Amino acid sequence: MSIPQEYEAYINEKISIIQQKLLKWYEKNVRVFPWRMTRDPYKILVAEIMLQRTKAEQVAPVYEEFISVFPDPKSLEKSKKEDIRAFFSRLGLLWRSDLLIKLANDLVKRFDGKVPQNREELLSLPAVGDYIADAILSFAYGVDVAVVDSNVCRILCRIFGLSARGEARRDKHLRLLAQKLVPKGKSREFNWAIIDLASIVCTPRGPKCEKCPLIDECFYATRKL
Q1: CATH of region 34-128
Q2: Which of 2, 29, 109, 218 is the most buried (most CB within 10 A)?
């Protein structure tokens, strides 16, 4: 995907409008989850691993029980594999439990049980890719970085009338566009807002355009309606 030059001015003009409208919508439609009530990078890291391919509502009770038993990397590193698997069996995809154990070992041995603040170091950890690394930077450390997955890309493509080639979340132009949209000092709220918009309104099928705060800015909605 590439962003045509004639779109650049249009995109820049829309950025502040999109930021304001989306943050205002988020204030009234915020979804409350336990991992959003903390800045502890370990707890957020655990949540992001659990949330892979699993709905947040399903993860929440398991996450809270897990954190009460394993509140930090050192307690997790000392755990038994079967204890971890017992939690993840309730979420499916047991492979995540093995990755989490490897992750805890790495955090304890290489970082003294602390989650690094450096993106390259985060990416060197087991189970941590671009999305989780950026989620830690934004949600735990307050870095102004976009947290980009296929759902975020869907919203961007619809708003700006763009199309992606290949795997959208890896498209460098979409990632750059997502980064441009992040308001300074409000990355946590903005990233959660766009995640929630994708879950509640701008769904893959049957998007509820009439309920979207960005309907007047959206290329897809104007063509649909």
Answers
A1: 1.10.340.30
A2: 218
CB neighbour list of residue 62: distance below 8 Å, 6 or more residues apart: 50, 87, 90, 91
pLDDT higher for 170 or 60? Answer: 60
pLDDT tens sequence across 151-174: 999 999 999 888 876 677 777 888
Which residue of the set 26, 42, 48, 134 is catalytic?
48
pLDDT digits (tens, 9 = 90+) for 9-32: 767 778 999 999 999 999 999 999
Give the other-Cβ count within 10 Å of 176's Cβ. 11
149 flagged as catalytic? yes
Intervals of CATH 1.10.340.30 along the chain: 34-128
Going by pLDDT thresholds of 50, 70 and 90, the confidence category of residue 223 is: confident
Under DSSP, is residue 165 helix (H, G, I), strand (E, B) or coil? coil
Taking the C-alpha atoms of 81, 83, 84 and 86 in order, what is their torsion angle to the nearest 10 degrees? 120
CA distances from 50 to 59, 82, 92, 224 (A): 7, 17, 10, 35
- Concerning whether 7 is annotated as a catalytic residue, the answer is no
Q: Which amino acid is at 105?
A: N
Q: Which CATH entry fits the domain spanning 5-30+145-223: 1.10.1040.10, 3.40.50.261, 1.10.260.40, 1.10.1670.10?
A: 1.10.1670.10
pTM: 0.91
Of 149, 171, 196, 217, which residue is the catalytic one?
Answer: 149
Question: For residue range 73-112, what is the model confidence (pLDDT) as tens digits?
Answer: 999 999 988 999 999 999 987 888 888 999 999 999 999 9
